[in-house]
């Protein structure tokens, strides 16, 4: 249930160079976008490097969107949806889960660190989980440093 | 519409989940609704819950859309902070005097930004969080509150004036007075909910004395992410995480000492849920539940109970706890109880008291003012045959106010009460509702995008962090932005006018608002641009408050940069927006009801009384269904007589066409447009379907000598003999849970315990000396049915509990049945040789039901009952629009519950049948046939079965996709799966999302180029 992203400790090389990671976050309209809003209502503070794109269901996130984001220099992509069994559209998030699992394998095969792509379940009541997810994922991306695509272009 | 002296409006009293459902059903079917709530915001108890059983759905997630729809509904007026003072008139034409207490905030000006509460110096305990947290003297009940209007707590406010100063909208009005108004309505629905039992009255458990003894509702808040400890389970005394938690059941329920003999019906399940959630929050926590009977009687509840034991390792102890003492040093609690005759003690870190449900505090006052009767326990009086009628004509009731009940039963009743309330005033439908008129839409085809950007300060909520002027200035530099401005509050009424002016002045054809969240404010702005002649889908929002200024409060520069990025992304999408049309679907305003039992007949009659033509199909030769097999009801009514009277009413109603002895061969079509063929070959068209096909008593397959010995009977077979006077004997044994709660059929059949009580009481009434034994696992006479359990016990019925895995043995000796059971309490074997062995046999679906499921594209549970759209909030809906279910086909239930669901299905169906055309959302999928190669990958991704592959009749290799827009819900799952780009989601097209991705990363690309 809880997020298992590793906590990056200590100063990384990237941080020393004033690295501002670019993170794209896809949120489903019903749960995770609402969770993000609740984080705001609760004034939970988090790093400002992510940009949310709202979709109706996490299953709308076409693998191409993720690849496009990486191609355009994103350092990390987070896809957030309703918890399993909570999907507003009955079972959309199960499809998301399968797609993201496959995409991570694909990314790895192309020599891209799959850690740059994360899937999280965040409910409308979990402002705190949204905060925690953003903090941890930003840490992970910081640790990984700038995307090889963005910097080699 | 015929001339009528009835008033086409309904007052719903109480704005919890029950009131919301009634209000929405009525407002969606042509009636004006006044929703009166005593609190400043609606939401009731459900808004306080963290999760809901048995799915562990997040309560707020599933409730919020209903809250928002209610708050925003054109034909629902919220009357909050209010109470009913007087009711005059009669059914069809009531005059209700309502007093609204002063909020001391002008609701029309308050934007809900919350700056006032941030600065308010007064802290007081927060009732929403059951006083486990603090709030300010100016407050909203909870963050997602509807209406989102702050109010001042009269008792706590010191009048310092800080909030008035802080409010840039000038909404604070210290001297606001209470107001009284008279509202004319045709029907009234009571849904004031319940109060929790005051645990202080059970002094032996130490609530209010020991800090670490909390009530279940307090614990619910403790589990919540918005609660006092952000979801971490901690002890109030010291903030330690408790290793062991004891849940004590039946606190204030099944307890005549405190005056509540009834069972509260929900506590067993909510305690299991809370134990599971606690365990999920902290894996080392060990919950233990002390209970008397585990009443997991609802749909799939027993499976949940099984999971709690087997997967989560939650311990269950069958014992009524005697007392709780605190260890003064550790603040741990010693729970004293007796298990299997042995006194025991155990220490826990935290004790949760499962408090029962009481009638609401104002029940007596309400009953006097409105003039309806309360029952002996202080709840609203209803009857089994009229489960949502109060004793006063035109006044209906739903939810926990008529008896303790869970959310799905409440929601069903709320719809049922709405149906009854509507029937009362059916002739006045559409008389008081208004339709908004908009100017003709401007044609923007072929025009260059001209985007207007409005950036909101939200008082200081955004402007205090983000440099709003620089964001507006930046917006002006973006391609296609023809106009940009900043506003103090973009959502205020005067800004709406300004937006409309600017659309005209600058010939804008798209609008972007950078402010708060589209979840609450998009409809407002969409309405504004629609009033200015723009298609409402030419609107986009950038969330620079909730997801920017509020979460990066100390990083002004980064937040400003982010706000600019978000505006650039919104503008990029806006450029590609196009007008979308809300699809109009014609509705055939007739109904089909399948099943002519109590549920189906009740539904057909209610539809007919509202003027709907109904086709009622029954496979048997006679209407009545299970009513003709029950023979007795515990409440005394004669079910056979009831069946006759319903059947007579059905036969004489000119709106109902009955098809007896016929089955459904095929149903095709979609909402508003179904066509049914019966096996007789008859066909008819209709707009909705109600499935009330019922279920049957399980016939044991050889268990307990059934079918081998003539004196071994099922409960219904026995009741038939009893009714006919054919039962002769002095000793009777009942065995419970035959074919229920076992492998393959893990769930409870809900009705058999009470059915057994009814039969046992009848035997004892006829022959007080008869020996009657009931062998059981848990007695599940929930709610007021507890009285039948009590009556049976008082009449001398003996109850013997057996362990789940040590079933009674039944043998035949000399033609006589011999039953041997191990009494779980004493561990001793008891041998009986009864004249009759009665098997309380479970409820099973009809196998014929299976054929209906694929016709209507509706799912079934693994046990073969129909599976509703959502177990909690859509109990009688299917995901397939226009198709509803009710009664035993949904799962085992009592007659009153079945009738309630039948009525509920009517209210749901009337939201469709009351309209000539249905408006479908514009955000739906569309398919480009030139790109689709018919691979079919998309088909299984659609949960609503809107997609189908059509194989060309001449050329089998040619396949195409058929998209039924009437079924599409616009989630976009199919679009995300389409490998050829043939599927598109309108409003979220690939190009639009890609444009946002590109825009989000644009800045970064530039910077990296510079860096190199």
Describe this structure in words.
The complex is a heterodimer of chains A (153) and B (1012). Chain A is an alpha/beta fold and 153 residues long. Chain A has one domain (20-142): Rossmann fold (3-Layer(aba) Sandwich). In chain A, 42% of the residues lie in helices and 15% in strands. Chain A contains 6 helices and 4 strands; from the N terminus they run αβαβαβαβαα. Chain A has helices spanning 13-16, 32-41, 63-71, 92-109, 127-144, 148-152; strands spanning 23-28, 50-55, 76-81, 117-121. Chain A has a 4-stranded parallel beta sheet with strand order 2-1-3-4, with helices on both faces. In chain A, α2 (32-41) packs across α5 (127-144). Chain B has 1012 residues and is of the alpha/beta class. In chain B, 27% of the residues lie in helices and 24% in strands. Chain B contains 24 helices and 52 strands. A 5-stranded parallel beta sheet of chain B has the order 5-2-1-13-24. A 5-stranded parallel beta sheet of chain B has the order 15-22-16-17-18. In chain B, β42 (809-813) and β43 (816-822) form a beta hairpin. The longest helix of chain B has 22 residues, at 990-1011. Chain B starts with 8 loop residues before the first strand and ends with a helix. The chains are: A alpha/beta (153), B alpha/beta (1012). Chains A and B meet through α2, β2, α3, α4 and α5 of A and β4, α2, α13, α14 and α23 of B.
């Amino acid at each position: 249930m809880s997020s298992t992203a590793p906590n990056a400790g200590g100063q990384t090389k990237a941080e020393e160079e004033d690295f501002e990671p670019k993170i794209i976050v896809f949120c489903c309209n019903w749960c995770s976008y609402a969770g993000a809003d609740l984080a705001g209502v609760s004034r939970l503070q988090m790093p400002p490097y992510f940009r949310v794109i709202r979709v109706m269901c996490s299953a709308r996130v076409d693998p191409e969107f993720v690849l496009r984001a990486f191609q355009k220099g994103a350092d990390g992509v987070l896809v957030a949806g309703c918890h399993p069994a909570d999907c507003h559209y009955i079972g959309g998030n199960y499809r998301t889960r399968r797609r993201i699992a496959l995409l991570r394998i694909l990314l790895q095969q192309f020599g891209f660190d799959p850690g740059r792509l994360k899937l999280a379940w965040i409910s409308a009541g979990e402002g705190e989980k949204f905060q925690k997810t953003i903090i941890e994922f930003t840490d992970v991306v910081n640790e990984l440093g700038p995307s090889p695509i963005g910097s080699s272009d | 519409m015929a001339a009528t002296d009835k008033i086409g409006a309904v007052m719903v009293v109480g704005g919890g989940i029950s009131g919301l459902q009634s209000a929405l059903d009525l407002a969606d079917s042509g009636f004006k609704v006044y929703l009166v709530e005593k609190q400043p915001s609606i939401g009731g108890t459900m808004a306080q819950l963290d999760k809901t059983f048995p799915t562990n759905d997040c309560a707020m997630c599933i409730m919020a859309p209903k809250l928002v729809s209610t708050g925003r509904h054109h034909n629902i007026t919220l009357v909050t902070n209010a109470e009913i003072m007087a009711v005059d008139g009669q059914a069809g034409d009531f005059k209700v005097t309502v007093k609204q207490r002063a909020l001391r905030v002008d609701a029309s000006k308050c934007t809900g930004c919350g700056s006032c509460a941030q600065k308010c110096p007064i802290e007081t305990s927060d009732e929403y969080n059951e006083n486990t947290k603090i709030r300010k003297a100016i407050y909203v009940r909870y963050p997602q509150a509807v209406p989102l209007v702050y109010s001042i707590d009269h008792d706590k406010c010191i009048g310092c004036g800080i909030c008035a100063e802080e409010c840039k909208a000038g909404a604070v009005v210290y001297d606001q007075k209470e107001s009284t108004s008279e509202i004319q309505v045709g029907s009234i629905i009571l849904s004031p909910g319940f109060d929790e039992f005051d645990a202080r009255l059970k002094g032996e458990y130490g609530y209010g004395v020991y800090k670490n003894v909390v009530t279940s509702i307090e614990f619910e808040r403790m589990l919540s992410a918005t609660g006092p400890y952000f979801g971490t389970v901690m002890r109030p005394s010291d903030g330690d995480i408790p290793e062991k938690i004891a849940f004590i059941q039946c606190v204030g329920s099944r307890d005549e000492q405190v005056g509540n003999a009834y069972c509260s019906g929900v506590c067993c399940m909510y305690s299991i849920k809370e134990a599971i959630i606690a365990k999920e929050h902290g894996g080392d926590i060990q919950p233990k539940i002390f209970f008397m009977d585990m009443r997991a009687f609802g749909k799939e509840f027993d499976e949940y109970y099984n999971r709690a034991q087997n997967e989560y390792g939650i311990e269950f102890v069958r014992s009524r706890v005697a007392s709780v003492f605190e260890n003064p040093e550790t603040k741990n609690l010693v729970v004293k109880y007796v298990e299997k005759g042995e006194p025991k003690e155990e220490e826990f870190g935290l004790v949760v008291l499962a408090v029962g449900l009481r009638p609401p505090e104002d029940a007596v006052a309400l009953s006097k003012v409105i003039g309806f009767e309360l029952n002996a326990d202080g709840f609203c009086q209803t009857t089994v045959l009229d489960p949502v009628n109060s004793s006063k004509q035109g006044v209906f009731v739903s939810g926990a106010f008529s008896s303790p009940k869970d959310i799905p039963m409440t929601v069903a009743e709320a719809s049922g009460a709405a149906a009854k309330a509507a029937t009362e005033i059916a002739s006045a439908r559409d008389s008081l509702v208004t339709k908004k008129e908009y100017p003709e839409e401007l044609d923007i085809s072929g025009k260059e995008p001209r985007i207007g950007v409005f950036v909101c300060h939200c008082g200081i909520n955004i402007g205090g962090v983000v440099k709003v002027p620089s964001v507006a200035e930046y917006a002006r530099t973006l391609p296609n932005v023809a106009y940009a401005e900043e506003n103090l509050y973009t959502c205020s009424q005067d800004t709406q006018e300004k937006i409309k002016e600017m659309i005209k002045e600058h010939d804008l054809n798209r609008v972007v608002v950078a402010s708060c969240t589209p979840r609450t404010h998009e409809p407002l702005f969409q309405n504004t641009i629609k009033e200015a002649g723009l298609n409402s889908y030419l609107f986009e929002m950038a969330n620079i408050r909730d997801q920017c200024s509020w979460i990066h409060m100390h990083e002004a520069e980064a937040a400003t940069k982010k706000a600019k990025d978000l505006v650039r992304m919104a503008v990029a999408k806006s450029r590609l927006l196009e007008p979308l049309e809300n699809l109009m679907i014609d509705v055939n305003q007739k109904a089909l009801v399948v099943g002519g039992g109590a549920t189906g007949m009740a539904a057909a009659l209610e539809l007919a009384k509202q003027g709907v033509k109904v086709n009622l199909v029954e496979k048997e030769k006679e209407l009545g269904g299970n009513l003709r097999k029950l023979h007795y009801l515990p409440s005394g009514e004669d079910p056979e007589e009831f069946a006759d009277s319903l059947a007579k009413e059905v036969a004489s109603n000119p709106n109902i066409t009955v098809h007896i002895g016929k089955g459904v061969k095929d149903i095709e079509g979609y909402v508003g447009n179904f066509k049914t063929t019966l096996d007789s070959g008859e066909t008819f068209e209709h707009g909705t379907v109600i499935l009330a096909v019922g279920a049957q008593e399980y016939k044991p397959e050889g268990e307990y000598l059934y079918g081998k010995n003539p004196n071994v009977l099922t409960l219904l077979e026995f009741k038939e003999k009893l009714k006919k006077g054919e039962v002769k004997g002095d000793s009777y044994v009942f065995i419970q849970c035959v074919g229920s709660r076992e492998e393959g059929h893990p769930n409870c059949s809900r009705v058999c315990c009470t059915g057994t009580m009814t039969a046992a009481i009848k035997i004892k009434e006829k022959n007080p000396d008869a020996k009657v034994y009931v062998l059981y696992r848990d007695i599940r006479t929930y709610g007021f049915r507890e009285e039948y359990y009590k009556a049976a016990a008082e009449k001398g019925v003996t109850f013997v509990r057996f362990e789940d895995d040590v079933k009674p043995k039944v043998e035949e000796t000399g033609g006589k049945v011999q039953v041997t059971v191990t009494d779980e309490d004493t561990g001793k074997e008891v041998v009986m040789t009864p004249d009759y062995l009665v098997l309380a046999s479970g409820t099973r679906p009809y196998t014929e039901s299976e054929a209906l499921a694929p016709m209507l594209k509706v799912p079934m549970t693994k046990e073969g009952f129909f599976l509703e759209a959502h177990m909690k909030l859509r109990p009688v809906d299917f995901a397939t629009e226009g198709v509803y279910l009710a009664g035993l086909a949904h799962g085992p239930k009592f007659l009153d519950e079945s009738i309630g669901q039948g009525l509920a299905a009517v209210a749901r169906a009337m939201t469709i049948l009351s309209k000539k055309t249905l408006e479908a959302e514009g955000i739906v999928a569309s398919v480009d046939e030139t790109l689709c190669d018919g691979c079919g990958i998309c088909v299984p991704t659609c949960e609503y079965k809107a997609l189908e592959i059509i194989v060309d009749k001449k050329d089998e290799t040619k396949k195409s996709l058929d998209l039924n827009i009437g079924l599409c819900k616009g989630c976009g799952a199919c679009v995300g799966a389409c490998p050829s780009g043939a599927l598109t989601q309108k409003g979220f097209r690939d190009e639009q999302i890609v444009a946002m991705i590109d825009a989000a990363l644009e800045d970064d690309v530039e910077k990296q180029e510079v860096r190199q």
